[in-house]
Amino acid sequence: MLESTPRQDSLVVYKGRPARVRRAAKTLEIELQDGESLTVRPKDVLLLHPGPLDSLPAHLPRGEVAIAWELLAGSTTDLPELAELAFGSYSPATAWAAWQWVTDGLYFRGTPQELVVRSEEEVAREQAARQARAEEEQAWTAFLSRLRSNRVVSEDSRYLREVEDLALGRRDRSRVLREVGQAETPEKAHGLLLRLGWWDQAVDPYPQRLGLATMPVAIEMPELLPEERLDLTHLPAFAIDDEGNQEPDDALSLDGPLRFPLRCAPGPRAPGFHGRLWVHVADVAAVVWPDSAVDVEARARGATLYLPEGPVRMLPESAVRSLGLGLVERSPALSFGLDVGSDGHILGVEIVPSWVRVTRLSYEEAETQLGEEPFRSLWALAQLHQARRREQGAVAIELPEVKIQVIDGTVSIRPLPPLRSRDLVTEGMVMAGAALAQFGREHDIPLPYTTQEAPTTDTRPSSNVLGQDLAGMFGLRRHFRPSQYSSNPGPHAGLGLEAYVQATSPLRRYLDLVVHQQLRAHLRGAGMLGTAELLERVGATMAVAGTVRHAERLARRHWTLVYLMQHPGWEGEGVVVEERARRVTVLIPELDLDAQVALRKDIPLNDRVLLGWTEVNLPELDVHLRVVTS
User: Fold this and answer.
1) How many CA atoms lie within 13 A of 301 on its CB side?
2) With 90 as the cut, is the pLDDT of residue 468 above it?
3) Which uninterrupted H or E stretch holds 241?
4) What pTM, to 2 d.p., does this model score?
5) pLDDT (tens digit per residue) in 194-214
6) Where does 51-192 show beta strands of DSSP type E?
7) Residues with Cβ within 8 Å of residue 125, at least 6 apart in sequence
8) Whether 613 contacts 628, CB under 8 Å
């Protein structure tokens, strides 16, 4: 039986290396193969042979490990017996050689004093595992060789999957990128996938990278229940939107006779009454109740995600088919009747579930009819209200807008002209928001009010950017503070309103749906969400809705750069909108794209320069522009 206490001139193992004990006491003085001497504790070493040992084994003798394993199968042994069976003798050299087999672990495991002989099944499993590891290492080496040559095959998908996961924000580490000396960032992962041809330009990684849902809602939409609705089908109603819009959620009507707020006692007609505007909105809250399955999913998504390659809707696809205005002969709506005074002031509001008959028009079609009724009167009401807001400090920021669309990987960018019909619809929705804020205050309805502080002295743009030119608008937009939501009414500086509530897009924005749920509960005399519950929804929604808007901006820039790559000879006008040291920011109106350009000479703000592009870094969303000289 092998003893366990080392003595002088015995063979021991220290940290996997052979050593000779030169002196044995409470501590051991050992000598390693390279001649280094160390003082260690007895428990830090394993005794392999008691000696005497003059020098450490330089060469390992050949032994019959398989024969020894077969003879010892199903038993336990110790190092001396293993050395005897495999080598015919137990010496420092054979002890060290036999210990290598134990360290290897295929046939034996344990300590020098007690070795366990592994069964045939265990050995077979270990051999198979080793073979698999060897094959995997060989495959990995071959993959790295192809990778460094920018060439991969389909079998490499298992390695590139982790790179995709990093590019899509599903993980933050990548062994592949480490191996090729790249920083482990989503941008570098994206760049590698493009360089290998594993991804192409059509991959928009931003929604997934930001953790947003990209699949349609799989929950079944509830059916519309029978209820009493005001029949407004006699009024011509118009849903005006961009051509090709697939989710009409608001429409406008003009009505002459004065009505009174629902659930309010009629009073005398307010002086200066000018006309009644009806704003009809898709009645989503009629079927989507607070905390229902569809409501919870919509809250998690926050808003419809609008991407150039197509929308990812907040609600089930069937919601648009059943509730979109003008998609069937008679549409259910929640209608807001706004009485507008001759000075543009909203005198009163009536809110009713209704039936409406809606005609759908594009902005371009409506533009040609603004001189005809009812569009002429609708435009007059809109102008009255807009003038009133401007008197109260409203700011109109007019910057280029474009529609970006991707069909089968091909990008089209179409500038949207500044049509009066757009202003008409926008003003109608603003009027509805102002009226609902007024209604909410009068009836003590907890609502998410949209507020915006005016720029402070520190953030107010300087006088050279206060004009109505493009540079002025660009600078003004940068200095306005973002809108906030509050349970208390407050001013909206940009709109020039004392209070404002967004409520005209419940198919697309969750907080608009919450407003409708609150209004419907009020109309029924049922329990509404309290302020705490409302603020909880606001917080949850804003956390994701901000991410939705960010993903949309990134996706639009991505596809704009892809558009440039698909048009290598593109040239276009840029307007200088911001000055920096030796560089300027230019805005390209036809693309709604801003970028920095290095210039050799000073160019005044609002001057136009002819630009071309020299390089696009798609993963970094960067483009290098050059000034085209004639």
Assistant:
1) 29
2) no
3) strand 237-241
4) 0.84
5) 999 999 999 999 999 999 999
6) 76-77, 108-111, 114-117
7) none
8) no
C-alpha torsion angle, residues 603, 608, 611, 616 (rounded to 10): 80
pLDDT for the residue 345? 87
For residues 603 and 575, the answer to whether their CB atoms sit within 8 Å is: no
Q: For residue 1, how many other CB atoms are within 10 A of its CB?
A: 8
H/E stretch holding 238 reads strand 237-241
Mean pLDDT of the chain: 91
Instruction: Say if CB 361 and CB 238 are below 8 A apart.
Output: yes
Contact 250, 325 (CB under 8 A): yes
- The whole-number pLDDT of residue 85 equals 93
265 falls in which pLDDT band (50, 70, 90)?
very low
pLDDT digits (tens, 9 = 90+) for 92-149: 999 999 999 999 999 999 999 999 999 999 999 999 999 999 999 999 999 999 999 9
Tell me the pairing of strands 310-312 and 305-307: antiparallel
- Is residue 561 within 8 A of residue 406, CB to CB? The reply is no
If we measure between CA atoms, which residue out of 365, 338, 197, 183 comes closest to residue 270?
A: 338
What contacts 288, CB < 8 A, 6 or more positions away?
222, 294, 295, 298, 315, 319, 513, 517
Domains and CATH numbers, the chain: 11-118 (no CATH), 132-199 (1.10.10.10), 230-556 (no CATH), 567-627 (2.40.50.140)
- What DSSP state is assigned to residue 502? -
| Calpha distance 57→147 (Å, rounded) | 44
Rounded Cα distance, 65 and 83, in Å: 9
Q: In whole angstroms, give the CA distance from residue 598 to residue 611.
A: 11
Nearest-CA neighbor of 362 among 283, 430, 417, 282? 417
Helices 293-301 & 531-566, crossing angle to 10 degrees?
A: 50
**Across residues 465-473, what is the average pLDDT?**
73
Q: Which helix (H) or strand (E) holds 347?
A: strand 346-356
Name the E strands within 4-101. 11-14, 17-24, 28-32, 37-40, 45-49, 76-77
Statement: residue 458 has pLDDT above 70: no
| Tokens 């009068």 found at | 442
